[in-house]
């Protein structure tokens, strides 16, 4: 056995430096980059296409659940924040504050906010739209006939973050935020469960990221909520990433913002509300779950293009004929609803191949003179690498591609699930858990629910930089899962 | 002939007070409303669904043209604005300025920007992303191999407006902005023509709004552009609304922001760029082109739901059976890809009918006990009113509906086109034009191009509150069209 390190496309490798590996994968796959605006990212076309696919799939799910999309203002009046501050301890004060509405040049010609255009009351850029959507709901809901009211918004939000990391924590990010209102407890409780299941479906069935569905412990529950549900995924460094949450607020939010209505008996009731959100953060999770030392590995159902085609050109060859043959393959795949990207640039062939590998294109197709003569093509799976290289007729490829893509999805999911399962320890006591982490355990630890009552819990969490991730549904609330978290 | 005014659902009528009619239609159709944030609107579900349909159709067009979507920061560094200020006279200074990044409570507990969290350099909320996208393009374009680069962004933008009107002019609005770069003049010129044609297709073929395609006069050309193309629509008050524009900047923008590249000869060249945008403003145009004195009239291809179904319930009747019959119609239409909305609320039947009329649902279906027994339904076209009422079998309805919707589209388009044509005057001189407007002409006036050189032009424009809308392509630049404009 050789000790020689195999050549990888990404330096450093995951083992060497996971956080730096993550940044390098994003760069190599050309998904996003830092911007000239502190803490804000630019989502490049290859990264944005993933977000569009996430949006498309989730949007169609929530429309089937009778949720309506709408759009609310970017700015939040200060008065709304004061209201929230009264009710919510954990209220985020780090936010972008708009204080002026005009620029003007000073005596030296330097542009700045015009003193004459100072706003009487500043606005803040929405860190969430909870208050401004709630304010509308309070006006729109007058009678039980107006319920349920289910609203969702796809938008940008802003929270001033000091330490940022692309996709995972940025001052501006994209998300959807849903805010639903119901007549009674049952409607609200069922809704926040249904929404969590929609997230789990999205993340597992489209992004191939296995998650643990569960309920947050009282300490981790969203301020003001009766119950916070979460899906937690395990990254390849063993850390947890909370991929989406769904909250049931009972009547708390409705009472603070005034969502009351005439009930069926003619009296006045407060609505039961839920809120639920998923952001571009999940793209970060997908990278850290599937990426390898050669770059990104895209799950086929959200991949910008599931197939990449590379024409293998030689100097003496009829370039146009080969490209025509390749374009015909693109067209045949388009007919069955699968997007293929032809790299007809004049880069070198090895650069094109490594480009596709680093971008994690699920299936790479290579077509040279021999393939063209024979009516075939050669294809390689990103998840299995060069051992999966095969040559077959174009017709056969088109026929089998949908099931190949399904198999790639299943393989990625199973690989990640096996990883999560094998990095999940189970112990009976707080002491055992602490020993595990002190001994270098990377991953989750499951304990009996009784651990939450131990007086030493906070110290153990703090010393080991772990938190209670959730009480998994699968154990009916009898256990808690701990882990380090992003 | 009776002088009695017919009852209308909207007060005032278009003739009585067009601007107020417009606001009342939006309210009656439940499309949008003013928000607690000065000058910003809330786009309600029924209005937002129109925007989603516009987005879906236009997005698929631009993707076919190899445009990539991406996302750039909401905030623009002041330094970028200064750069733009140097180059652009018409640079907009009315914008939202972010000066602080934290809130804190003062001694009285009142929240405000924290003095300790004042930004060294303020940011502004994007009024357009031209500079920040251009800055990226300058980094991304190094070689002719990187061209063409075609980027589009769907986002919110903000311009501090003093006098606002929902959809037409609001401080925050939604739009797409495209920014493309090419190797040479030909690529840029062709691109800005192609993009204008895409807009014309979107607005005419989906929104049923006829437009005049043309080029802006030098005075009306976008600052810094070589050529600005526009599509102009005529509202029912005879005023023009510029529905979308497409600019060719030559090398001007590339020079100011540094988009240069190594050309095919090994030398250095500046890219030729275009930019093109369409906003939620077009929804306002659609309302003012198609709406009538009973409310909105939705063009079927962007209607949130082309069909609305009203169950006509009587007290002694089996409600559930009737609703089941209605749901079956909804399912049958879903099968052919047409969305139908069943109003199963417990509002009164006349309220439901007027609700659908005011919302402008293209085809209203009424189903009562008789229809259910006979396996039929009754349907009415919004564009033709009660005279178009017909009863037919459900199967026949499903079969003919697609062509009925096409016919509604064609009818709306033709009606608007006839209106525009009949309100287009043609004169030879500036004097004749002025007389027309002084005599109360509402509509456009076409003149020979030579009028642009007359010294009295500016005075005539100012006195009559008109502007040169465009030099229509159809006259090969030999004429100019004038009009009052939104």
CATH fold name of the largest domain in chain A: BirA Bifunctional Protein, domain 2
Strand content of chain A: 25-35%
In spatial order, strands of the major sheet of chain A run 3-9-10-16-13-12-11-24-25-23-22
As an assembly, this protein is homodimer
Quickly count the domains of chain A. Answer: 3
The biggest sheet of chain A amounts to:
11 strands, mixed
The structure class of chain A reads: alpha+beta
- Which regions of chain A have little confidence, pLDDT < 50, spanning 5+ residues? none
Cα separation of the termini of chain A: 37 Å
Q: Tell me, what is the CATH class of the largest domain in chain A?
A: Alpha Beta
Helical coverage of chain A, percent range? 25-40%
| Structural Rg of chain A | 26 Å
CATH H level, superfamily name of the largest domain in chain A: Bira Bifunctional Protein, Domain 2
Q: What form of chain A results from the Cα inertia axes?
A: globular
**Main interface by residue count:** A-B, 64 and 64 residues
The counted number of beta strands of chain A is 25
Contiguous helical run count of chain A: 13
Nearest-integer average pLDDT of chain A: 95
Tell me what you see in this structure.
- The structure is a homodimer of 486-residue chains.
- The first copy, chain A, folds into three domains: 18-290, BirA Bifunctional Protein, domain 2; 307-411, 3-Layer(aba) Sandwich (Rossmann fold), CATH 3.40.50.800; 424-483, 2-Layer Sandwich (Translation Initiation Factor IF3).
- Chain A is built from 13 helices and 25 strands.
- The first copy, chain A, has helices at residues 18-28, 45-64, 78-87, 130-140, 185-206, 252-257, 281-290, 319-335, 349-359, 369-374, 394-422, 430-438, 457-464, and strands spanning 32-34, 41-43, 68-69, 75-77, 97-100, 103-105, 111-113, 118-125, 149-158, 172-182, 212-215, 227-234, 240-250, 260-262, 268-270, 272-279, 307-311, 340-342, 363-367, 376-381, 385-393, 424-426, 444-448, 467-472, 479-483.
- In chain A, helix 2 (45-64) runs antiparallel to helix 5.
- The first copy, chain A, is globular, with a radius of gyration of 26 Å.
- Chain A starts with 17 loop residues before the first helix and ends with a strand.
- The interface between A and B is large, with 64 and 64 residues.
């Amino acid at each position: 056995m050789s000790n020689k390190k195999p050549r990888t496309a990404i330096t450093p490798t995951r083992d060497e430096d996971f956080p730096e590996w993550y940044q390098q994968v994003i760069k190599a796959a050309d998904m996003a980059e830092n911007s000239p605006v502190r803490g804000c990212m630019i989502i490049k076309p290859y990264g944005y296409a993933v977000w569009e696919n996430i949006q498309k799939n989730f949007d169609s799910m929530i429309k089937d659940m009778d949720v309506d999309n709408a759009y609310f203002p970017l700015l939040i009046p200060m008065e709304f924040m004061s209201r929230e501050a009264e009710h919510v301890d954990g209220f985020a004060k780090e936010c972008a504050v708009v204080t002026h509405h005009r620029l003007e040049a000073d005596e030296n010609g330097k542009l700045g906010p015009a003193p004459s255009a100072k706003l009487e009351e500043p606005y803040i850029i929405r860190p969430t739209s909870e208050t401004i959507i709630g304010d509308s709901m309070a006006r729109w809901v007058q009678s039980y006939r107006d319920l349920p009211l289910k609203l969702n918004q796809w938008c940008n939000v802003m929270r001033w973050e000091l330490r940022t990391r692309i996709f995972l924590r940025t001052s501006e990010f994209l998300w959807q935020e849903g805010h639903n209102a119901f007549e009674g407890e049952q409607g609200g409780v069922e809704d926040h469960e249904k929404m969590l299941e929609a997230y789990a479906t999205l993340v597992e069935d489209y992004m191939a990221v296995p998650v643990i569905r569960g309920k947050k412990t009282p300490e981790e529950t969203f301020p003001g909520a009766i119950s916070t549900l979460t899906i937690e995924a395990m990254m390849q460094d063993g850390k947890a990433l909370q991929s989406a949450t769904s909250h049931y607020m009972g009547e708390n939010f409705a009472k603070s913002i005034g969502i009351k209505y005439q009930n069926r008996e003619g009296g006045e009731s407060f609505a039961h509300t839920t809120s639920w959100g998923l952001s571009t953060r999940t793209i970060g999770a997908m990278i850290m779950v599937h990426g390898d030392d050669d770059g990104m590995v895209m799950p086929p159902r959200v991949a910008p293009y599931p197939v990449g085609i590379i024409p293998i050109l030689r100097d003496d060859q009829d370039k146009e004929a080969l490209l025509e043959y390749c374009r015909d393959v693109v067209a045949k795949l388009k007919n069955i609803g699968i997007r293929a990207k032809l790299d007809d640039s004049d880069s070198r062939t090895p650069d094109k191949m490594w480009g596709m590998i680093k971008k994690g294109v699920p299936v790479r197709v290579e077509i040279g003179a021999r393939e063209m003569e024979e009516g075939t093509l050669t294809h390689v799976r990103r998840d299995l690498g060069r051992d999966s290289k095969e040559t077959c007729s174009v017709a056969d490829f088109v026929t089998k591609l949908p099931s190949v893509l399904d198999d790639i999805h299943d393989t990625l999911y199973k690989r990640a699930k096996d990883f999560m399962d094998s990095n999940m320890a189970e112990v009976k006591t707080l002491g055992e858990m602490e020993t595990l982490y002190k001994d270098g355990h990377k991953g989750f630890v499951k304990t009996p629910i009784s651990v939450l009552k131990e007086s030493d819990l906070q110290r153990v969490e703090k010393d080991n930089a772990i938190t209670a991730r959730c009480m998994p549904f699968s154990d009916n609330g009898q256990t808690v899962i701990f882990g380090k978290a992003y």
